[in-house]
Amino acid sequence: PADTRDAAQPWPRSAPAPVTDVARLCVCDLLVAQCDPNCCCDPDCSPEEFSLFTACSVPLVTGDSRLCSQKAAVYSLDVEANPPQRIFQLIDRVNPSIFCIRATNYKQALYLRSPEMPTPENFDELLHKFGSSAFSAEPENWKVDTEAPNPPDLNETSRYEFGVPIQTEDAFLRLPSPVVSSWCSDANPAGFLVNQDTKCIRAVSVEKCDRIPALNMLFYTNSSILAVPKSSQTVNVSVQSVVVQSLDGMRTLLKEGKDVLRLPVILGELCLNVVLGVSYHITYTDTGEIREAAAAFVLGAISKETPSVQQSFQISFTQVDTNPVALSGNPGYVVGLPVRAGSRPGEYPFQGELGSSGRCQLSVLPSSAHECLAAQGARAPVLFGHNVLSGCTLRITAAMKCQPLAQTLLDVLKGPDFPEYVASFGNSQAQDVLDWVPITHLLISEQRISATLQSSCQIPVSLRIEVKWTKYGSLVNPQARIVNVTATLTTTTLRQLPPGRERIIPVTSSVVFTDVSAPAEPGYKAWPTLNIKLPFDFFYPFV
Asked: What keyword terms does UniProt attach to this protein (predicted)?
């Protein structure tokens, strides 16, 4: 009957008004119309009961921590008063984070929605909506009209985007990793443009090693990668190289490593050709399409006494027609990573080989250098935040010519292709000219009295590189930025030695990092500076 159906429908109820006043919030108020012990925000407690408290169980009550500015209720006890009293303060707190919420203008997000009660009329609809193993929790007005045609640039099958799992013919590209414990889990998908480096432990058995899929090269190469999601175009995973590791850790590169396939083989109490490591290298285009995929393997042997083996997995990405350049931070420098440097042969842009390559690298003499003339070519990269003092000794004889010796020492101190610029950030790109700091060169000459100027010349004996850097951006997460680099070359006068005489002089090189950040003002409560540099791929895939 109609009246019965109407009676079964629930009465519409409006959601309770959300409580956003921190002075009225009290998470320790558990007893109804009674005072909770040590609950300083309980409105049911009287001053006499507050005097019996030993401490405030909840001394601070705040709202949403993501707000830029918010009220905070502070509770404490004045134990020196007689009797002890509760102290209540309402203060303003400023969120120092750059990314914060200015105002909560979406009131519906302040409380939970009341669930829709099932009735005979809406039961089938609710069953269709929530009866499956997975359903959407988004409101109806968030749904997109599926009947409308998608614009070409919004077609999800047209390109890979950052972090999207790389799809294969059967599922996705596996990159085993530890999940809860250190044991390997094969359910970890490799994300597009997400460089990963994982290590995990896998249980093995010599008797079953040829039947464990994860120990076989085919497990990592037999499934082709989809060039773009949900497409029929595939890319085969080729074998780039194979390295064989012996039981004592000795590694040997197979000459016939490319496109070779070695399956696990049981030989007595050993199992050979077991996969110990896999390194994927993916080549992609700027449109998000995968062009090539290669895998480098490390194969080893396990004995009967080995219950488990450690496997390592890596994946890296390179864009087509570009030279990969390792970053030293994103955006600020990370202590211990190389200072990126480069040269500008023309007006624009910088050359592609920066920081991590052998050319145009900011480097110094290694600490193992002893004889300067024997140290030519030996270099140690300048690592951010690491002060260095190294050097070598030069034995000078009367037969040595001054000018060639001076040039040799200059090459020893500066190295080949001394850079002209240093990247101000760890992720500075070659095309961003303003992100590169020119190196300032200074020359200091130690003049010495000589009887005959014709028989003396200047030779370099010291190179001091001073890197000035500053903290940049938010006070919560400051980024290291290089603002000035000075290379000071010190020369000394070399006098002609008599025949048969020799002289030993020390040659030194040093690197000093100086923090020139301005100290924060005392009692600083204003908004932090917005003079920040975001990671270069922060807005990917948007420009």
From this structure: Cilium biogenesis/degradation, Glycoprotein, Signal
More confident residue, 51 or 154: 51
Phi, psi of 110, rounded to the nearest 5 degrees: -90, -5
Task: Please answer whether residues 241 and 250 qualify as being in contact, where contact means their C-beta atoms are separated by less than 8 angstroms.
Answer: no
> What CA–CA distance (Å, rounded) separates 158 from 95?
40
In degrees rounded to 5, what are phi and psi of residue 50? -60, -35
Type of residue found at 438: P
Closest CA to 227 of 272, 283, 187, 186: 283
Rounded-to-integer distance, Cα 453 and Cα 208, Å = 83
CA–CA gap between residue 407 and residue 184 (Å, rounded): 56
Which pLDDT value is given to residue 96? 80
The rounded Cα 335 to chain-centroid distance in angstroms is 13
C-alpha closest to that of 372 among 410, 402, 403, 404: 410
Contact 101, 134 (CB under 8 A): no
Residues β-bridged to residue 312: 199, 277
As a whole number, mean pLDDT of residues 166-174 equals 89
Q: What is the pLDDT of residues 189-221, one digit of tens each?
A: 898 888 888 899 998 888 888 888 899 999 998
Which residues, other chains included, contact 481 with Cβ-Cβ below 8 Å and sequence gap of 6+?
332, 333, 424, 425, 469, 470, 471, 472, 533
Question: Residue 402 and residue 393: Cα distance in Å, rounded?
Answer: 16
| Total length of the chain | 543
Structure tokens at 146: 């599926």
Q: Which of 295, 258, 304, 255 is nearest to 277 (CA)?
A: 295
Dig out the tokens for 9 from the structure: 């429908």
Residue type, 411: D
- Per residue in 351-379, pLDDT (tens digit) is 444 433 445 679 998 887 678 877 667 78
Phi, psi of 401 (to 5 degrees): -85, 140
- CA atoms of 538 and 543, how far apart (whole Å): 10
CB atoms within 10 A of CB 348: 8
SS3 140: helix
CA–CA gap between residue 489 and residue 442 (Å, rounded): 6
Cα 460 to Cα 307: distance, rounded to the nearest angstrom: 60
Contact predicate 218/308, CB 8 Å: no
Amino acid symbol at 426: G
Answer for the pair 419, 398: CB distance below 8 angstroms, yes or no.
no
Which residues face 132 on adjacent strands?
none
pLDDT, one tens digit per residue, over 500-510 is 788 888 999 99
Write down the pTM of the prediction.
Answer: 0.46
In this structure, are strands 237-245 and 290-303 parallel, antiparallel, or unpaired? parallel
CA distance 85 to 82: 8
Please give, one letter per residue, the 3-state secondary structure of 218-264. HHHHCCCEECCCCCCCEECEEEEEEEEECCCCCEEECCCCCCCCCCC
Q: What is the mean pLDDT of residues 399-423?
A: 87
At 138 the three-state DSSP class reads coil
What one-letter code names the amino acid at 394? L
